[in-house]
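Exercise 7.
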Amino acid sequence: MVRLNFFLILIVLACALSLVSANHRARKLFTELEAVQKRMRDLDVEWGQLQLEQSTVAAHVRVEKVAREKLGMKQPAPAQIISVEAAPGN
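Solution. The predicted structure, written as tokens, is:
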């Protein structure tokens, strides 16, 4: 009878330790999940900002301004413009 009680106590202790371990692991994984979700939200915000920045930089007006100011480009005179038409079927 003493051996049975000792054996049952060992089983209860093993179950209790495994429960504590599983609970700790679950909390740790939940904390990691929250950190990853926060990083995902931060990256989504950064992606939106980068898309906005790209649309601003690529805007036609900005390209024209940079071409004039930094590259010294100017619009050609109407006499310098040559119109090229595509061949039929292209």
